[in-house]
Amino acid sequence: MAQALRDAGLAPRLMIDTSHGNSEKDWRRQSGVAQDIGEQVAQGDPAIFGVMMESFLVEGRQDVGRGDALVYGRSITDGCLGWDATVPALRGLADAVRARRRLAG
Length: 105
Prior knowledge:
Order of helices and strands: HEHEEEH
Strand order of the largest sheet: 1-2
Radius of gyration: 16 Å
Structural class: alpha/beta
Shape: elongated
Largest sheet: 2 strands, parallel
């Protein structure tokens, strides 16, 4: 993708979504996608500048209007990583950024 941007005369800057197509629409796979992105960043990929994640306090999603009690902190839209999975994913990405900075000197 970065090369396609270069070929179009654009800056090769990528923000990658860990959800939707990259996780095959399974919110539980976002942590693995984030880890893969982190590996690319840690190896020095300069094009990746950001990550989007579906995250909320409580993992999963819930439907509104079925008469069930809603769970505070659980998404009513897309399935989300819970806070307990989000924190280590973000820490791993932060470590990857630090590793890339060390490589760049």
